[in-house]
């Protein structure tokens, strides 16, 4: 069937062109990557449009293209709350987190989030850096492996090849352009992928709505199937709060926050906020409409491959588009997945090389830029290969971890960033307590309490981390006799 593999030579050609484009971008950006700052932050010289679209692309991944459309197929218009939370959070964080973080990171010479924390608190013992590095490596490695696995499964179905071969192709594609261009290649590739996602989540729903007879006909069809499909609050207050709580994770995602640190002028983040929010809204609604269209046209799970609602995007793309656009749509799914993989691998690289090797193990030395650049590239390859191995041999563990990776990173770093910027009484001990509490509560809540309570773990772990920061900071000030 059309959504199972790219049998048409033209569709296959467009699909393969979409996959190979990142290599070309990596080659073109090779000469611009001459230092560790270039590799990790693009030399703080990225344009506002690049930053905006890169943040949107790296933050959404297959969760938006496949996950939200599948969610809308399952529950109807109530799925929109899953995108409202992160849209509102990212609108504010562009300005209220991004701008001060960009200014201070340049002032301190910080190349990573942990650099900034350490300098901000004068943490000579490097407790924040080491604690944060452990959390990032644990959650981010699982995240990368799961994204590789998702991309390989899509590629395996599209090309009708073995999963191991698909993983090898995915690994080569990502690692090749990352090693060449680092952050610059990642950012520009994210822009290209954002454009592909825009085609898939804007053109696609418009074409579908026209063929379905318009919004009115679509809503009437859904109402006949189940009136709850057109009632956005039918999902219940608990689910609604949980969906909105997804946005709490955005300020704590290192691969998104680093985008703000890379912009060429912090004041341009206002314009980036407008650009990013506009496309967040458009893409979010596009994914929801694809799911709603799919429910109207394919009302039963038996009409979906493997009875999987997340396959509705591929089913409709096969029905609506010719070989050229279909190849682009399938390539777009894979591109959306890779846009998160490369950003997260870059965070793992910066954590190992900058935060541990350079600042902990060689703190009193001045390693050459060429050596640091080579090490960053080496770590990208090693970390990528390790994630590929985990993705293949430990799939169940990876997907169990990735379910709360967003929450774990969000609770560990989001409250810490916000409290550091906006609460003057925050101290180092509070930040460490908040990071540990956010990560631990996320894991424990996911494992033991989410089922009985029905509450998304981030809704619990985020305020728990804030409380830990307040208590830890108060305790630190009391010991120091400063209040």
In short:
The protein is mostly helical and 483 residues long. The chain has helices spanning 9-28, 36-41, 48-75, 81-96, 98-108, 113-121, 127-159, 163-212, 215-225, 237-244, 254-262, 269-297, 312-320, 323-361, 369-393, 395-422, 428-453, 457-480.
Task: Please describe the topology of this protein.
Blueprint: H1 9-28, H2 36-41, H3 48-75, H4 81-96, H5 98-108, H6 113-121, H7 127-159, H8 163-212, H9 215-225, H10 237-244, H11 254-262, H12 269-297, H13 312-320, H14 323-361, H15 369-393, H16 395-422, H17 428-453, H18 457-480
Helix pairs in contact: 1-8, 1-14, 3-8, 3-11, 3-12, 3-14, 4-10, 4-12, 5-6, 5-11, 6-7, 7-8, 7-14, 7-15, 7-16, 7-17, 8-12, 8-14, 8-15, 9-12, 13-14, 14-15, 16-17, 16-18, 17-18
How would you portray this structure in words?
With 483 residues, this protein is mainly α. It has one domain (9-394): Sodium/glucose cotransporter (Up-down Bundle), CATH 1.20.1730.10. 79% of the residues lie in helices and 0% in strands. It has 18 helices and no strands. The chain has helices spanning 9-28, 36-41, 48-75, 81-96, 98-108, 113-121, 127-159, 163-212, 215-225, 237-244, 254-262, 269-297, 312-320, 323-361, 369-393, 395-422, 428-453, 457-480. Helix 16 crosses helix 18. The protein is globular and about 70 Å long. The termini are far apart. The mean pLDDT is 85.
């Amino acid at each position: 069937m059309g959504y199972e593999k790219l049998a048409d030579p033209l569709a296959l050609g467009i699909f393969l062109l979409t996959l190979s484009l990142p290599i070309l971008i990596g080659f073109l950006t090779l000469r611009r990557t001459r230092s560790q700052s270039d590799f990790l932050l693009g030399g703080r010289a990225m344009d506002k449009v690049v930053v905006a679209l890169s943040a949107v692309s790296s933050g959404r991944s297959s969760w938006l293209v496949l996950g939200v459309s599948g969610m809308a197929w399952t529950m109807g218009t109530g799925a929109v709350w899953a995108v409202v939370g992160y849209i509102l959070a990212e609108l504010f964080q562009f300005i209220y987190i991004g701008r001060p973080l960009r200014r201070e990171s340049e002032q301190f010479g910080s190349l990573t989030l942990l650099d900034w924390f350490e300098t901000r608190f004068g943490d000579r013992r490097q407790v924040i850096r080491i604690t944060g590095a452990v959390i990032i490596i644990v959650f981010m490695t699982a995240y990368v492996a799961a994204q590789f696995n998702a991309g390989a499964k899509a590629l395996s179905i599209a090309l009708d090849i073995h999963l191991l071969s698909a993983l090898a192709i995915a690994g080569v594609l990502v690692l090749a352009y990352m090693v060449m261009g680092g952050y610059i290649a990642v950012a520009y590739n994210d822009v290209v992928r954002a454009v592909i996602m825009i085609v898939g989540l804007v053109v696609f729903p418009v074409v579908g709505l026209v063929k379905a007879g318009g919004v009115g006909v679509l809503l009437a069809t859904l109402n006949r199937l189940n009136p709850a499909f057109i009632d956005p609050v039918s999902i219940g207050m608990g689910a609604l709060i949980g969906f909105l709580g997804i946005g709490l994770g955005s300020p704590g995602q290192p691969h998104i926050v680093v985008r703000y640190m890379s912009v060429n002028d912090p004041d341009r983040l206002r314009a980036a906020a407008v650009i990013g929010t506009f496309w967040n809204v458009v893409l979010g609604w596009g994914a929801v409409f694809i799911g709603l269209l799919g429910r109207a046209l394919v009302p039963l799970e038996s009409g979906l491959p493997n009875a999987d609602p997340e396959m509705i995007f591929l089913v409709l793309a096969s029905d609506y588009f010719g070989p050229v656009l279909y190849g682009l749509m399938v390539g777009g799914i894979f591109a959306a997945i890779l846009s998160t993989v490369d950003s997260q691998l870059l965070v793992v690289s910066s954590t190992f090389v900058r935060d541990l090797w350079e600042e902990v193990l060689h703190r009193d030395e001045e390693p050459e830029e060429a050596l640091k650049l080579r090490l960053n590239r080496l770590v990208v390859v090693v970390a990528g290969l390790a994630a590929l191995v985990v993705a293949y041999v430990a799939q169940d563990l990876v997907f169990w971890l990735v379910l709360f990776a967003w929450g774990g990173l969000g609770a560990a770093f989001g409250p810490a960033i916000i409290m550091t910027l906006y609460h003057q009484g925050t101290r180092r001990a509070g930040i460490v307590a908040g990071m540990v509490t956010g990560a631990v509560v996320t894991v424990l809540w996911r494992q033991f309490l989410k089922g009985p309570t029905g509450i998304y773990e981030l809704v619990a772990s985020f305020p728990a981390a804030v409380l830990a920061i307040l208590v830890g900071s108060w305790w630190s000030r009391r010991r120091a006799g400063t209040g």
